[in-house]
Amino acid sequence: MKAGLIYEIETIQPFKSPSYEADVYRETLEQIELADRLGFDSVWTVEHHFLGEFSYCSAPEVFLGCVAGRTKRIRIGHGVVVLPFNHPLRVAERIGVLDIVSNGRVEFGTGRATTMDEILGFGMTPGETRPRWAEAVAMIPRMWREDPFTHQGKYWPVEHPVSVIPKPVQKPHPPMWVACTNPVTFELAAQKGLGALCFTLGVELRDVAARIRMYRDTIKRAQPVGQSINNQISLNIMGVIDDHPKKAEDLARAAVLWYVRKGFTLVSSVAEAKSKDESYKYLNTASKFDPQQITSDYYGFLKGDDLIAVGAASEALRIARRYREIGADQVLFFLQFGAIPHEQIMRSIEIIGEKVLPEIQSWPTPGGITLCAPHPGHQQ
Amino acid sequence: MDLGLQYEIQRSRPHYPGFMYDIYHQATAQVILADQLGFHSVWTVEHHFLNEWSYSSAPEVWYGALSQVTRNIRLGHGVSLLPIPFNHPVRVAERIAVLDIMSNGRVECGTGRSITEQELGGFNINPEDSRPMWEEAVAQIPKMWTQEIYEGFEGKYFQIPPREVIPKPIQKPHPAMWVAATQPSTWEVAGHKGIGALGFGISEPGVIDKLVATYKKAISNCEPVGSFVNDKVAAATVCVCAPTREEAIELGKGAIDFTTRKGAELFTPFANKDVKGYEYYKKMAQQAVAIGDYRMSTESLQKRIDSGSVMVGDPEDCLKVAKQYQSAGVDLLMALVQVAALPHEKVMQTIELLAKHVMPKIKNGASAQSAAAGA
Prior knowledge:
The structure holds two protein chains of two kinds.
Chain A: E1 2-7, H1 20-38, E2 42-45, H2 60-70, E3 75-82, H3 88-101, E4 106-111, H4 116-121, H5 126-145, E5 149-151, E6 158-162, E7 176-180, H6 183-192, E8 195-198, H7 205-219, E9 228-231, E10 233-241, H8 245-272, H9 284-288, H10 296-304, E11 308-311, H11 313-325, E12 330-334, H12 342-362, E13 368-371
Parallel strand pairs in A: 1-2, 1-12, 2-3, 3-4, 4-7, 7-8, 8-10, 10-11, 10-12
Antiparallel strand pairs in A: 5-6, 9-13
Chain B: E1 2-7, H1 19-36, E2 41-44, H2 59-69, E3 74-81, H3 89-102, E4 107-112, H4 117-122, H5 127-146, E5 153-154, E6 159-160, E7 177-181, H6 184-193, E8 196-199, H7 207-219, E9 233-241, H8 245-267, H9 279-291, H10 298-307, E10 311-313, H11 315-327, E11 332-336, H12 344-362, H13 368-374
Parallel strand pairs in B: 1-2, 1-11, 2-3, 3-4, 4-7, 7-8, 8-9, 9-10, 9-11
Antiparallel strand pairs in B: 5-6
Helix pairs in contact in B: 1-12, 2-3, 3-5, 6-7, 8-9, 11-12
């Protein structure tokens, strides 16, 4: 099994100093550099806009370029590029350049946005995010294999033939993924032959397991958008790891609750919006939560149901093993959240790298990448 | 005058498998060397689809990597295309801010609107909209950096409610802003808006003086789009420097041929059309088409070196050209060193020779006036 890190790049108000924003960015890169040295397989960052505190990672294409410049081996993942907000031609170009400057280390995750602040901020409606994603996710791998490229579509017609350059160095192209929370997206991921990056914090493991089974079953009949089928499941493990479990626990409780309150408030905005779209209905669950009602009980639920890893190295290993049991191919440790200090994140990475990683990486995985011809339905 | 580098990330045919990878990694090595040798800045275009001419379609990504392998050299977008289908203004503001943080405040924000039909057409942009699109964006981006909660905008080409655009750049009040200026009217616009002028496509001596005068006149009475006036003029020129003029001619002939021919070819789509805002390029394209064969004889290249219109030659020849720009009032000379199919070692040679023989003689203190006085 593979193990990596995932980042939102969070900053908590009030800012500790005028340079706090910049410090968090630099510290994040330091953490990734350490993870690269310790042999973590990958690092992933989100793309979020306008979400003060929750995520400062608004330009991952630049930040991941920095990661490429600073690291040697670690794979570099977009987790994810929000396709409705970026012209697909620009996305294909950026992935091409990032793959070149990183020596072929790119993992290309895609998504569609889940907060009203972002959707309305870019002048869109909730109803158009999924069709925009679907159009773009089929266009981009075509840009890498068809030269000249043209496209007849609803959102991004390309009538003049163009040559999309430079091409990625990984052949046939970097592995493609999509952010999955609700069951419909798992199914879409499988149908299109995309890996599933699960953002399922708070979903009980038996439900996640059911979605994974459905994904594995559906992907057998995939109609891939690209030239490979990325039959892989990636699960996030939020956590704080320390040699002293009590210390980890003390730090984690407040930070986890902060994150969950903030996250639920943000995503519930879509569910509550008047103009909401059927495809966001799954977020109704989140909207039912009053953020203030998310108390220590909720922390207890996350911990008790093995949805977070808080404690010593053994705890990180135990949770990873649980995720393996339900069918994960990859786990991504989510360690920078709430007000967890940089030194603690470095310590968590160090402990996981030294004591947990070797065992995780020795486990065989159920999924993998297979080469294929793209489905004729995705040809122009 | 400062000395910088300008990149298209170019490779003329014939191509071989893996050449795109090679030119990126070579260009990276060249910039690392330039950083060590004290060059002021590196500037990179954003071009799309222009095979041979430019493989720099996502400079924001390359710059992320460069920010981590260099220490002092400034990173200039030369330029970021602002018409919204290329780049949403919010995305530009965000990217510049992240790069500014990661580079410790080394970013210069150059902007532009695109001048080829391939690019505008590929992104479905009506050429007549490109300048008003640029104008909307260039005025909003500084506000996104300086207002804690950006006030929002109701424009013709983009609308946005108030939003917290984050992160903020670390240069205060914000990174310097520039615009790519080829035609005289853009030099005037640059002045009016209080932003720097990045002169491209000006190779004839004497022309630059008039453009600088136009700019200076406009900026003396400007309404700045940013929080400060960036009264700066930069000019780009192809540069091949070698220990001897003979070697430079041998190397430079093909490079000058290619940039002239290919450059003309890229503008020709506008040669037979009347497109508002691109009349200047129509004229330019017609002239280029009239030339027909761009191959330059060795004698004519010699003549152009003697007149100082191309920065090709031995270090003395190159210094002479640099001084012409300096006395014309140029603050920053951007040398296009990686052109056509020049071998990597020869590009490295140009960078080394410029650093050794040209840079020290045009450095600060040697301003336009004092250079003129000394002449």
